[in-house]
User: Fold these one by one.
Assistant:
Number 1:
Amino acid sequence: MPTSQPASPVFTAAGRHTLALVAREARADGVREVLAPRVRCTAMTTPFELEGLHVTNVDCAPSGLLDPGALAAALAACNRQPLILHAETFGNRAGDELRAVLAAARSTGARIVVDATHTALERAEELLTDAEPEAARPHDADYLVASLRKLLPIPLGGVVHGLARPTAPTRDELNADLAAVAAIAERHRDVPVLKDAVEDLLDLAWAPAPMPGPYRARLAAPGLGAELTRRRARLARLHAAVADLDVINPGAAYPPVIAHPQAAAIRTALARAGFSPPLHWPGVTDGLVVLPDDPRAAAIARRAAGPTALREALAAGEASGPAEPFDFDAFISSKTPKTA
Ligand SMILES: Cc1ncc(COP(=O)(O)O)c(C=O)c1O
């Protein structure tokens, strides 16, 4: 386990950079395997693979979090203590059962990384603290990491708490380009391709880089608290608007995530209405719709979900008893205007 010496958090340009710092430290201490949730994006595990760690997929519960039984089975198969990546996906937090498996694993030497990217609105205060006072250290984990650029109002940013040997990330040319393009993309939000360029550059820039100074300053600005309160309130209203649907993260400070058999069609309807594609991890979130943070999105999702509801109602009707035989010809002739 890392030493218990409190150390400062490290602020980086992206979440993947924080995971790279964790991967380096764990690798140097002899860790060789990461148990990672199957519900995730590649940027969460590539940093570990780049450091030569083996990634083992662990099945998730419907909440998107590690399934406690699957995690226990994966732990039992490890021949040395692994690192467990526990992501608070969709803003969901571990329940008692998962917490118990994580605590038991930690007590026998496994390291726990909590990825709070999706709980960053809820955990903003502890994530953004500059010092590493004892109270701000993760109590039930070794590392607390987050990509801050998903839910907080900055285009580049990540943070890691709990590194035993924190090293300041260094600047390199690619990361300087990244910061420049991110700044341009922010000035021209109406040009989505610029935002894509930031993501493309990030997929090349795996070397941990520091968070650009202006974004660090923005996170320390006095108005941030009020802005985050507004964001949380807006999300709470959005949750209330879809509470009757199959929402897998009720009450989370994260956009509602709806499980629906027509999820792909709903995502298409949202894209056609001009919403930039919200989170979708192909192969693992195919049956889910992450609702954009906009009240109009709820209405569009409902409309797109409608045909299924109708089909389900018809199927239920069919199941309720044999249908009357339908005379198609009689129906057509009843509709055809009769000539005298
Ligand atoms: C849960 C989670 N952790 C980490 C990351 C990586 O963050 P970044 O894209 O800032 O590197 C992502 C990206 O989608 C994520 O969803």
Number 2:
Amino acid sequence: MSDSVVTISPNDLDSCWKPYTANKQFKSQPRIFVAAEGIHYLTDDNRKIIDGSAGMWCVNAGHCNKKIVAAVQEQVARMDYSTAFQTGHPGEFEVAAKLALMAPGDLDHAIFANSGSEAVDTALKIALAYHRLRGEGNRTRLIGRERGYHGVGFGGTSVGGIVNNRKFFGPLLNGVDHLPHTHNPEKNAFSRGQPKHGADRADALEDLIALHDASTIAAVIVEPMAGSTGVLVPPIGYLERLREICTKHGILLIFDEVITGFGRVGAAFASERLGIVPDMMTMAKGLTNATVPMSGVMVRSGIYETFIESAPENAIDLFHGYTYSGHPLATAAAKATLEVYLEEGLFERAREMEPYWEDAVHSLRDARHVIDIRNWGLVGAIELEQIKDKPTARAFDVFLRCFDKGLTFRTTGDTVAWSPPLIIEKSHIDDMVSILREVLDETE
Ligand SMILES: Cc1ncc(COP(=O)(O)O)c(C=O)c1O
């Protein structure tokens, strides 16, 4: 990071209502970043902080990658914007073609949006419209999963399964049901990688089919690895079983790979690592290394063709899209990002680093307050014992103390969730572990 960074501290914190933030606490003790490079942030009081969460599971190639920054700078000076509706620009086609090569099976068509939430709502709407176009308009039910996170749109909130994200917002979408989550600490605590027990939880889908009838169900959406709820790694065989049941009953299977995409689990996508082809796959975050907001949905050929072939001549085939779908700055960032991933071999790097990472996070097993540790790819979750009647308090306190010692990360519930940039070095991993251990040792 350059020494010439001008650090400016804002003098009005009140006007900005920060999302998913304890605003009162934050404004009494603000944590302000003014620059970033590689795996570090720089704070407004000139401290270097290790980014243990790759931003928010998104800066997979590390901060301010030079090639990505240059691509965005070049694009903004050449063409700032053009609409994706009825006109196009080269970038959106180039990125879609690259993604089609990267995605498994015949997930060969990409439709773009700007955030994970928008990608999820896009996929859910495509599922509903697809069945309708095929004369199965009764298939309107959407199935999510307890503890799932699919963003904050009404669709994503409805299929999501994290209580606090739902309970404030009324009845949400009609006709949504949920599979049980896969967390089973009695049998799977301290599992390394995919846990052994829990494939049979996919059979709950057969129960929902028995209850609602398959002819009413449009789609099942799950995160291959549930991230935001505290990292629940899929049990061995579980996702394969979901795929089988969905295929058997003509239900579309959507994998929400907003977190698991782009090397996070040591492959381009979790679906690639597991050899499963979902019918649609949502992506965001690592797609542009978070440099410019962008998301997308990969769609299997049969679905895409159903829309294209159903539309009368010169008529729109999908009544859906955003002003900023395929924004030129976003596609410039995505194109450069995908090239960086390949040129620097970052997905392979993540896979190679996984055993070291796994040993490092599991070395915290004997640290104070630790009740479970989970890992997959370059993701690690250290679950702490909840302080009686004060859920989230311990993890948040640990987060604040680690921040003071030069490490930041996401916490969810009482789980410390780590997902560093894929360029992380072993020495940084050692630093993360020793800072957390030190803090746990001093925490009551
Ligand atoms: C699996 C998953 N889906 C969707 C989203 C929503 O993405 P965004 O915050 O970009 O709307 C997230 C965000 O963390 C996510 O983890």
Number 3:
Amino acid sequence: MMVVYILASLLMSCMLHGVWATPLDDYVNNLDPTYSYETLETFQGEGYTLYNINMTSQSWIPDLQSQPVWWHYLSVIVPDKILIKGACFLLIDGGTNRDSPPKPTDNFVRLTTVIAATTGAIGACLKQIPNEPITFKEDPDRKQRTEEEIIAWGWKTFLENQGADPEILVELPMTKIGFFHSMLSISL
Ligand SMILES: *[C@@H]1O[C@H](CO)[C@@H](O)[C@H](O)[C@H]1NC(C)=O
């Protein structure tokens, strides 16, 4: 019954929007003026440059939780000679918003660098997806939640509210992260 109700409300939402867009489409396509980025530091390596960027991706349900503005460390590696044009790759890493900026010697940054430098493609290592830790204001335990706990809290709330507010699902902001804007602007 619950499932039927949720499907019905999703269907209604699609009809109201006049297209078969899902709440995820709507969330991702909704331009967020919070988006910005700044280069924190630059490292010159042999055959490449590594930019450590602080990318602010979006605002996510500011009234409900402790991390209203999401920001991420994005390490972009630009080879001196770009051999593969019009394509790049992304490695998604974890981490928390309390971490210091990643070092070029960190495992996943290093891995991204080796692939970028040997293939001649621009690559990036993106951290803090999702942003964490997060404390939900309605959480009776007021616990600092990470990873699957954030996902579980979202789905619990979503189901209890009969699917009324899909934005509580952390998969939406996780999907939205518009990293390619930062990468493309830097490579020009
Ligand atoms: C990154 O940017 C966010 C949002 O502007 C800010 O709150 C955060 O302190 C910045 N982090 C670093 C390490 O500069």
Number 4:
Amino acid sequence: MDRLLAFINGLVDEKQKDKTSELFTGFEQEVTQEYEANWLVRRIAQLENGDSVSVLAEVNGRIVANGEITRGHYIETRHHGELGLTVMSVYRGMGIGGEVVRTLLREAKRIGLKSVDVEFLSTNQAATRTYQKAGFKEVGRIPGKVYRKGKLFDSVIMARRI
Ligand SMILES: CC(C)(COP(=O)(O)OP(=O)(O)OC[C@H]1O[C@@H](n2cnc3c(N)ncnc32)[C@H](O)[C@@H]1OP(=O)(O)O)[C@@H](O)C(=O)NCCC(=O)NCCS
């Protein structure tokens, strides 16, 4: 719990300090132990129900990356997953993100998912490259999806079959 809390609040800190941060939505303010505990309870229930798969990366006992693929909510979208992934800034560019994506895709296949998508800021070169390498292709952009500090930014969506 404490290590998860340190991870999420490290990202909040990054987003507050780095105006050029590529972090997507969320991470606006520090989360409390109670909030994180509730998040963990929901996440464990999702994992137990086969509604998501999750991969954490650790370095010397410190959580440095967290990724998940969450199953669609509707009967007709339950074969499709949405991916989210964040690596702590000092550990980026070392191959951790790519490894987490490969593991997530294997796990998603195991629970029967057939396709997956991921959405991020269109300026995010690291994410574009990471997902291209993992077999994703761009399927669209949403102009002005993110409103940040008075400006609108486009998002890009990449997807692949599993
Ligand atoms: C996107 C992200 C997950 C990638 O993880 P990572 O551990 O940094 O990526 P890797 O080290 O595995 O690199 C994967 C590929 O991307 C390339 N890459 C990494 N950083 C890059 C950068 N800043 N610019 C261009 N390419 C980059 C790597 O060179 C590698 O390609 P290569 O093998 O052809 O050289 C990570 O940078 C991150 O958490 N960013 C902030 C959050 C985010 O954007 N999440 C994605 C939205 S879900």
